[in-house]
Amino acid sequence: MIPPKFEYVAPTSVAEAAKFLAAHPDDAKLIAGGQSLVPVLKLRLAKPGYLVDLGRIAGLSYIREDAGKIAIGGMTTYADIKSSALLREKCPLLTETATVIADVQVRNRGTIGGSLSHADPSADMPAPILALDAELKVVGPKGERLIAVKDYFQGMFATALAPDEILTEIRVPVLTGQRSAYLKAARRATDFALVGVAVRMRVGKGDVCEEIAIGITGVGEKAYRASAVERALQGKRLEAKAIEQAAAGAVDGVTPLGNIHGSVEYRTNLAKVYVARAIAAAK
Ligand SMILES: Cc1cc2nc3c(=O)[nH]c(=O)nc-3n(C[C@H](O)[C@H](O)[C@H](O)COP(=O)(O)OP(=O)(O)OC[C@H]3O[C@@H](n4cnc5c(N)ncnc54)[C@H](O)[C@@H]3O)c2cc1C
Fold it and tell me: Is 2 part of any domain?
């Protein structure tokens, strides 16, 4: 289908973009890589009068180490994440995740900021971002603020971003001394996650789990931390039986959703199986 008619706006600064959004509260939408927004427009699920292109704003695409963290610009593409030597060395969880998202064309256009703003319940990136306890820098007409990822995802396609705010940077920790893995179950190689599990953990002497963080996507209305599994493994030896028992809590406190791609029962079981496999893969 052909998208509805819109005006194209190309601001050259984040402040200008935020000002434009604030002046057109119900009628303007940001566009980054367009990999989610364009299909939405073509299906006429949204009919914004203005598309505000972030692509003409300099300095929103970068990956750099900054004060013990890695800062990733909101307009950084999956392809850039996948090929970043810094991330491969210091935060390979993001490299691994970017590698299994969509196909080459989508990875060349799609941005981390676009994915986290869109907050599709089956998107991959929210899982590692939760497991990494990331911070999200957003800029609006009143200035900038930092949002802890635990407060960011609020529901299906819903985040803590205000309509006139722009996600400009994602800050993740350096994972030196930690182990990590992202495992995704999908029907075909380029599909969204039926279930995606990101694990980050610190393992001490005797295979004891000193710290563990698990982000899960694809199961419920939004990505979440598998807190019950984390609690069950904290301070325990990472033996196969302990992992399997802990993984049984993968959907505790969550309402799994079913659709044509997978029933509630199927997703629930997949979540448990993939949590156990992701921990084993990270170990
Ligand atoms: C064929 C295909 C396969 C796909 N497979 C997968 C997959 O396997 N896994 C997966 O996770 N995703 C998949 N996707 C979805 C895609 O990865 C992302 O949703 C997409 O890349 C979002 O980023 P974008 O830059 O394209 O955002 P856009 O489509 O430009 O924007 C998406 C939304 O976010 C808003 N937005 C964008 N940037 C910002 C910002 N910086 N601040 C605030 N709001 C912003 C826009 O207004 C819009 O509402 C697939 C998409 C396609 C077309």
Answer: no
CATH at 100: 3.30.465.10
- Using the CB atoms, write b or e for 2-27: b if 16+ within 10 Å: ebeebeebebeebeebbebbbebeee
Atom of ligand 1 nearest to the CA of 123: 11
pTM, rounded to two decimals: 0.97
Stretch 136-157: mean pLDDT? 97
Q: Which helix (H) or strand (E) holds 98?
A: helix 92-99
- Cα gap 124→146, rounded to integer Å: 22
Instruction: Identify the burial level of 244 via C-beta atoms within 10 angstroms of its C-beta, where 0-12 means exposed, 13-18 middle and 19 or more buried.
Output: middle
| Ligand 1 mutation target, pool 117, 130, 145, most atoms within 8 A of CB | 117
Q: Which residue range(s) make up the domain with 144?
A: 63-173
Q: Which residue's CA is the closest to the ligand 1 atom numbered 47?
A: 30
In contact, 102 and 33? CB cutoff 8 Å: no
